[in-house]
């Protein structure tokens, strides 16, 4: 929730400082509509790997790409799907991601983060490759829906904002924070504050118009602008309706509805888990999965189901990892097979559920409903399907010597067991 509120503040100050307008302006100049969705996916994948966070990527560059799509007359739903595909690929394939670190620890048995990432690549890379091809086809077949030309959009942006490389400094600072492994909340909030301090120098006219109080001096105007942009969001008053509508966004207050949804989802998930309802649902699934393919499919089905039922990504990662790890060991399947199945379902599909914490967050920051962008989340849909197919084909599902661990519902043998991590 702190990250979410910080992203709200960041969107407000980045708009006020001209960071997002500059990214949009450079984007529509450099990227043709035919290559737009392909480029958005690739760039977000690279940034996601650097930052280690799909949320940070979507809340920064993702907002800019959806803004570009709006200016260029392209589908915002497809743009959001492209952002999500790239952001979640980057999130999965970096040792900076919290879920990429968490899942191997939950699975245990000496599994390292590096082994986990290398095995995930066998589903993640093909899924991203297919997504890039599909987005390229969509881009080549797409015609802008609006009559406004790109040149007219560029002219409107230049009239409204001082577009320059200096405006990109908050983005550079955020990437630097990520490279230094600064905690995400502090990195995002720090970049938001820096953008607020930069705004009076890069966009003085926009700041004065936003505050709209001639009685205040320059310092008081800047302070009030920073506070209001972070708290309630920036409101553009350039006189260009389309520009003002596009960049009047952000603020912590704009995230409160998503915060309430997350609180409700987490409370519901806690009750479901502590009352034993979720374990009661999963135990029969573990026991009835007879073949290797059925077992891997059960993990993926559990992850997708828990994202929908419990409404939280971490529940969908933690419970299957705990419930299935002994069964995988008993059947002689390597721990990285389980960890990949958990990530391909629990982590990746969370954004496809509107009431899930991830779905609520991404929809909130991008301003696109979950049901609208879902058909374009090719990577998120393909990842669990590929993992299930690999399970039935026996492709990249390495084995290990079976361990004498109990099956679901049976007591552990006296004096035996395994050296898994503490729950």
Automatic annotation (TrEMBL):
Recorded hits in InterPro entries, A to Z, give: Na/H_Antiport_NhaC-like_C, NhaC_Na-H+_Antiporter
The yes or no answer to whether the keyword Transcription is present is no
Subcellular location(s) per record:
Cell membrane
**Keywords recorded for this protein, A-Z:** Antiport, Cell membrane, Membrane, Transmembrane, Transmembrane helix, Transport
User: What are the recorded GO MF terms, alphabetically?
Assistant: antiporter activity
Region (Disordered): which ranges? 401-423
> Compositionally biased, Gly residues: which spans?
414-423
Which residue ranges traverse the bilayer? 33-51, 63-89, 120-140, 160-179, 185-207, 252-272
Q: Which GO terms describe its cellular component?
A: plasma membrane
Q: What is this protein called?
A: Na+/H+ antiporter NhaC
Gene source species = Catellatospora coxensis
